[in-house]
Amino acid sequence: MTNCSQQSWQGYSQRKGDSGMNERIRELLRQIPPMDTLLSEPWVSKYEKDLGRSTVKAVFTDIIGEIRKSALDGNESAADRRTIALEALKRLESYNAPSLKRVVNATGVVIHTNLGRSCLSDAALRSVIECAKNYSNLEYNIASGDRGHRNDHVEWLLCQATGADAALVVNNNAAAVILCLAALASGKESIVSRGELVEIGGSFRIPDIMAASGTRLVEAGTTNRTYVSDYEKAVGAETALILKVHPSNFRIVGFQAEPSRDELACLAREKGLVFLEDLGSGFLLDPVSFGLKGETSVRECLLSGVDVVTFSGDKMLGGPQAGIIAGRSQLVERLRKHPLMRALRPDKMTLAALEATLRQVLAGEIGEIPTLSMISTPPEVLLSKAKGLAKRLRKSFPEYAFTVVPVEDAVGGGSLPEIPLHGYAVSISHPRFSSGWIQKKLRETSSPIIATSREKAVLLHARTIRNTDVEKIEQALYKIISGTEDLPDASS
Ligand SMILES: *Cc1c(COP(=O)(O)O)cnc(C)c1O
After folding, report:
1. 209 near 174, Cβ under 8 Å?
2. Taking the model in full, what pTM does it have?
3. Is the pLDDT of residue 343 over 90?
4. What is the model's pLDDT at position 23?
5. Rounded to whole angstroms, how far apart are CA atoms 275 and 307?
6. What sign results for the dihedral spanned by CA atoms 366, 371, 373, 377?
7. Which of 111, 184, 264, 308 could form a disulfide with 413 if both were Cys (CB 3.0 to 4.6 A apart)?
8. Which residue has the higher pLDDT, 183 or 8?
9. For the chain, how far is it from start to end, CA to CA, in angstroms?
């Protein structure tokens, strides 16, 4: 970095020639203190200790380079020791703070992909710590004293929870779909309905995933109506697979038709094709028991004749990030042996968390799995939670107004966008500060609080607020109030 910026600066001055350089610019550049002077600032040693001397030096070098460039471009920016030191301090402080950290999810969206999807259960965490801190039998068969397989720790549990003959875990659901297509249809054709050629978000686009897996996409039907006869017409000598995709956060309503799973399974069997379904969320329990009508459990899909299903570990399962593949053992065996499997295999911490979560699912301990418990919390419980929070905040912060209001929460993770979950939120407003300003200040604290807003108020949705978050919310509000000297007006 250092050499680069110096070279370009020297090149510039040589090109222009000394006479071409304005005296004012020279004066500005002369102001820049030498590196040794900058590094001798008393506060610098702390950052040298935390980040290393070369990092600190690189930060100063960057800043000096920027000032030089700006001066040569004709800007009169300050280049004194104090200005440089303040800028360096700001940058070093931000590098020194942890980047990935806890936040308070006050959005009411339970499976919030940007906020890390599912929170793990205590049992899952205990298992992660135990297996990550120590050695484990990850790939060791204790009975025989020989090599074992990492997948063995969860396969039986997944088969119990889904009714599948065999199951396999990979890094995430995108990896699961890629592995299935690569192992079962690469170099061949795969048929997808035009109504399911979707983009899920986070750059998961069905046509691109298929191309990356080496299978040729053959489209069937139309965007809104696809019949089993459309799939039948698309079958040719090169067809290997029928792919059904959960449209996630996208719905076709009105003049719409799609064949049932049973019909597609029948066609696949008749033509000797693999029937693969990307379920996305993957319900292990009955979706209707969560008030989520219109979804199908993994078990039901397999019973309808789908050969292999894939779904995420951190959506409706409530576990760690993982891709789960469940289905016929003959096909799962082909996936296991595929060279990509080695690149997509899950980490031991994932497997530890997944195993513990699956055990809780089997035991019906819904209340222990945060995602499932948040989705199934009844409105009256959320109302009293919101009331309790509002009462506590009212006592500590009389200058703000706190009221409890009904809100629509969401499952998230691409599940059922049209079915809102009825919830409650604490609405925060202030006579002078705008909701946008309060929202920003809540985000800027050391435990950032991510809230929504409606009209002039900030909303803290009770559903996704953890018990230990309440303290964080109080601390954040205290911090906003104690920083009153730079508070702008509501209009700003
Ligand atoms: C979420 C989702 C994916 C991606 O799953 P990841 O676990 O994030 O890789 C793929 N397909 C569908 C239908 C989804 O809903």
Report:
1. yes
2. 0.90
3. yes
4. 82
5. 5
6. negative
7. 111
8. 183
9. 39
Q: Which atom of ligand 1 is nearest to the CA of 414?
A: 15
Q: pLDDT tens across 66-123, in order? A: 999 988 888 877 788 888 999 999 999 999 999 999 999 999 999 999 999 999 999 9
- Whole-number Å distance, alpha carbon 247 to ligand 1 midpoint, is 10
Ligand 1 centre distance from Cα of residue 111 (Å):
12
Locus of tokens 């060279």: 339
Which residue minimizes the CA distance to atom 14 of ligand 1?
280
Q: How far apart are CA 72 and CA 11, in angstroms?
A: 12
Class of residue 492 by CB neighbours under 10 A (exposed 0-12, middle 13-18, buried 19+): exposed
pLDDT bin (cut points 50, 70, 90) of residue 21 is low
DSSP 297: B
How far does residue 47's CA lie from ligand 1's centre (Å)? 41
pLDDT tens, position by position, 308-324: 999 999 999 999 999 99
Best residue among 110, 113, 200 to mutate for probing ligand 1's pocket (most ligand atoms within 8 Å of CB) is 200
pLDDT of residue 305: 98
Provide the token pair at 305. 């004749």
HEC sequence for 438-476: HHHHHHCCCCCEEEEEECCEEEEEHHHCCCCHHHHHHHH
pLDDT of res. 71: 86
Quote the pLDDT of residue 247.
85
Dist CA 98 CA 43 (whole Å): 20
Residue nearest to atom 7 of ligand 1 (CA): 173
Residue 158, token pair as written in the block: 């997944």
**Ligand 1 pocket, residue 215 CB under 6 Å:** no
Residue to mutate (ligand 1; options 312, 321, 354; most atoms within 8 A of CB): 312
Q: Is the CB of 409 under 6 A from ligand 1?
A: no
Q: Specify the long-range contacts of residues 26-32, CB closer than 8 Å, at least 24 apart.
A: 28/71, 28/76, 28/77, 28/79, 29/68, 29/71, 29/79, 31/78, 31/79, 31/80, 32/64, 32/67, 32/68, 32/79, 32/84
Nearest CA to ligand 1 atom 15: 280
Residue 1 has pLDDT above 80, yes or no: no
108 CB under 6 A from ligand 1? no
Q: Is the CB of 245 under 6 A from ligand 1?
A: yes
Query: From the CA of 167, how far away is ligand 1's center (Å)?
Result: 17
CA atoms within 13 A on the CB side of 24: 9
219, pLDDT greater than 60? yes
Query: Which residue, by CA, sits nearest to atom 12 of ligand 1?
Result: 280
